[in-house]
Design brief:
Layout (H helix, E strand, L loop, with lengths): L7 H14 L4 H6 L5 H12 L4 H9 L14 H16 L3
């Protein structure tokens, strides 16, 4: 039995909000070549299949800024990598 995927636009918004809360600039990552359209679509698809996604909106509503996405977030490592890569490029401390 396959998992039921969530509504596309709902998860586009969740990924965008999680990026904001984790200070991950997706537009800058795209502009810098660190995030392709396929990568973005993959993050949304991953979110759509996340069993924790139903609790994500409430978590986002109660957090303005955090260092990391919550542990259950299937895109947690991706957000961290994009943010760390962007910071590295800005400071040229790579």
């Amino acid at each position: 039995m396959s998992a039921v995927l969530g509504k596309m636009m709902e998860h586009v918004r969740l990924v965008s909000r999680m990026a904001q809360v984790t200070d991950t600039d997706l537009v800058a990552a795209y502009d810098a070549g660190m995030l392709s359209q396929e990568d973005w679509a993959g993050m949304v698809q991953t979110c759509r299949s996340c069993t924790w996604a139903g609790r994500c909106e409430g978590w986002l509503d109660s957090h303005d800024s955090v260092d990391q996405a919550p542990v259950p977030c299937l895109n947690r490592d991706r957000f961290a990598a994009l943010r760390d890569d962007a910071g590295c490029r800005l400071t040229e401390a790579c």
